Amino acid sequence: MLGLLLDKNLSGSQPGSDVREVARARTLTALRRVGDTRKGEVLRFLHEAGLIYRGKAIVDLREADLSSADLSNIKLSGADLSGTDLSNANLSGADLNNVLFNGANLKGANLRGASYTQEQLSRAFIQ
């Protein structure tokens, strides 16, 4: 991913470009292969690199497997997590302000102490 950021100008790429498709494929593959704790590290990197902000997401996380991920105390303010599978994820204490959850699966997710609004969850699957 670092090579795509530095060598292929991922940050400045256009929607639908090959570099974005490769970044998405690599991200989804990495999330399927790593353990629950490491999923949080992948997500933290994407957020800190500015690749998953709502309205200007460079890496599309739809269908990303974040199930059972340990995302406790993670800062994801303003991220686009639409269409992700966050079932049984630990989001306790997470900063989820302005996170977009459209179509996300939050069934069984632990949201204790997380900062978010009910409106944010209105288009997510929670039960």
Q: Could you list the spans in which at least 5 consecutive residues all have pLDDT below 50?
A: none
Global mean pLDDT: 91
- Beta-strand residue fraction: under 5%
Indicate the percent of residues in helices: 25-40%
Number of helices: 3
Largest sheet: none
Distance between the termini: 34 Å
Query: Which shape, going by the Cα principal axes?
Result: globular
As a whole number of angstroms, the C-alpha radius of gyration is: 14 Å
* Structural class by SSE content: mainly alpha
Order of helices and strands: HHH
| Number of spatially distinct domains | 1
Oligomer: single chain
Total number of β-strand segments? 0
Describe this protein's structure.
The chain is mostly helical and about 130 residues long. It has one domain. It has three helices and no strands. The protein is globular and about 40 Å long.
In short, what is this structure?
With 127 residues, the chain is mainly alpha-helical. It contains three helices and no strands. The model has no long low-confidence stretch (mean pLDDT 91).
What topology does this entry show?
Blueprint: H1 2-6, H2 18-33, H3 36-48
Task: Give a quick set of tags describing it.
single chain, 127 residues, mainly alpha, 3 helices, globular
